[in-house]
Design goal:
CATH topology of the largest domain: SH3 type barrels
Largest sheet: 6 strands, mixed
CATH architecture of the largest domain: Roll
CATH class of the largest domain: Mainly Beta
Shape: elongated
Helix content: 10-25%
Strand content: 15-25%
CATH superfamily of the largest domain: PRC-barrel domain
Strand order of the largest sheet: 4-3-2-1-6-5
Length: 150
């Protein structure tokens, strides 16, 4: 797989596979100043006929991931960046089934907060308190000062 081109889910080329380190794909990219980033193999699919690795994550997400420093991979930081359960001692999604290291570790509410979306329980509480108005097609319009009250 070394030397294969790496393409993100947004069809942008990230660089080439520099190495495979256990369950991580090491991607080297950059036009002048080469950087290396680790991507969990969970997000990679190699096509040997085209000699390309396609990722299920975007180039931007990989570029924002922790870079390798002096060739060392911070596995904890990489797992946390990609939201994998192995980054947490007791992930919020742990249930009755077996939890594997590449399971998402964030609950739906945590993901909403992380992406800047107001979680449903907060929306319902705000509606009960009467601090929101009904918007078009049943959507709620948040008054500008509502965020200060929540």
């Amino acid at each position: 797989m070394e030397g294969y081109d790496v393409i993100g889910s947004d069809d942008h080329k990230l660089g080439q596979v520099a190495a495979v380190d256990g369950d991580l794909l090491i991607v080297e990219g950059g036009p002048v100043r080469k950087t290396r980033h680790a991507v969990p193999l969970t997000f990679a699919d190699a096509d040997e006929s085209e000699q390309v690795v396609r990722l299920t994550v975007s180039k931007q997400l990989v570029d924002e991931s922790p870079p390798l420093e002096n060739g060392d991979v911070d596995r904890q930081a990489v797992a946390e960046h990609y939201g994998l359960a192995q980054a947490y001692a007791e992930p919020g999604t742990e249930g009755y089934g077996e939890l594997t290291p590449d399971d998402p570790a964030w609950t739906a509410e945590e993901q909403e907060l992380r992406t800047g979306v107001e979680p449903a329980p907060s929306q319902r509480a705000r509606m009960r308190e009467g601090t929101s108005e009904a918007g078009p097609r049943g959507r709620q319009i948040i008054p500008p000062d509502a965020h200060d009250k929540v």
